[in-house]
């Protein structure tokens, strides 16, 4: 699925793969799949054909995340499994990864490899806040909540 649609997995699932099993006491709540706009319709159709239902769709107009490489987010669910499909407005799925609030999440999994932008920090469960998140606009409550979430993990 990832190779066919040039998609990647990021977020807490990618982070979970990087951290040693013995030191991690949490599990991801959902699966975040990043895909470019061109490939998004085919990926979504594949997931719908596998029994997932679209439960929400959020278009990003740049007001909430200026400037952002996130075009839209679609949330799908099947039973208790949730998948967030994050559509990049650039020609590659990885562009939004470097807009995360902190370095702990700047990781992704492709069909053939795992990438970690800051391995010396991430593998020690350390992180630096992305300065562009703070300087671009006032910190949003959701960004602060995300920072707290990953600090507790």
- Span between termini: 29 Å
Strand elements, count: 7
Model regions low in confidence, pLDDT < 50 over at least 5 residues: none
Q: Which shape, going by the Cα principal axes?
A: globular
Radius of gyration: 15 Å
Strand content range: 25-35%
Q: How many alpha or pi helices?
A: 6
Task: Specify the helix fraction band.
Answer: 25-40%
- Oligomeric state of the chains present here: single chain
Describe the structure.
With 153 residues, the protein is of the alpha+beta class. The protein has helices at 2-5, 12-18, 40-49, 119-122, 131-136, 141-152, and strands spanning 8-10, 31-36, 53-59, 70-78, 81-88, 107-109, 114-116. It has a 5-stranded mixed sheet. A two-stranded antiparallel ribbon has the order 6-7. The longest helix is centred in the C-terminal third of the chain and has 12 residues, at 141-152. It starts with a helix and ends with a helix. The model has no long low-confidence stretch (mean pLDDT 86).
Summarize this structure as a short list of keywords or feature phrases.
alpha+beta, 28% helix, two-stranded antiparallel sheet, 7 strands, five-stranded mixed beta sheet, 153 residues, 6 helices
Overview in brief:
The chain has helices spanning 2-5, 12-18, 40-49, 119-122, 131-136, 141-152, and strands at 8-10, 31-36, 53-59, 70-78, 81-88, 107-109, 114-116. It is an alpha+beta fold.
Topology:
Elements: H1 2-5, E1 8-10, H2 12-18, E2 31-36, H3 40-49, E3 53-59, E4 70-78, E5 81-88, E6 107-109, E7 114-116, H4 119-122, H5 131-136, H6 141-152
Parallel strand pairs: 2-5
Antiparallel strand pairs: 1-2, 3-4, 4-5, 6-7
């Amino acid at each position: 699925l990832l190779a066919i649609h040039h998609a990647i997995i990021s977020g807490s699932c990618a982070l979970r793969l990087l951290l040693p099993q013995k030191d991690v006491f949490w599990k991801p709540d959902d699966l975040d799949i990043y895909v470019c706009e061109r490939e998004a319709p085919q990926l979504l159709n594949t997931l719908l054909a596998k029994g997932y239902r679209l439960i929400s769709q959020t278009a990003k107009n740049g007001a909430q995340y200026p400037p952002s490489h996130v075009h839209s987010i679609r949330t799908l669910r099947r039973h208790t499994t949730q998948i967030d499909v994050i559509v990049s407005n650039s020609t590659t799925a990885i562009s939004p990864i470097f807009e995360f609030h902190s370095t702990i999440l700047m990781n992704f999994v492709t069909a053939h490899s795992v990438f970690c932008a800051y391995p010396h920090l991430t593998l020690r469960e350390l992180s630096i806040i992305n300065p562009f998140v703070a300087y671009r606009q006032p910190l949003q409550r959701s960004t602060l909540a995300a920072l707290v979430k990953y600090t507790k993990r």
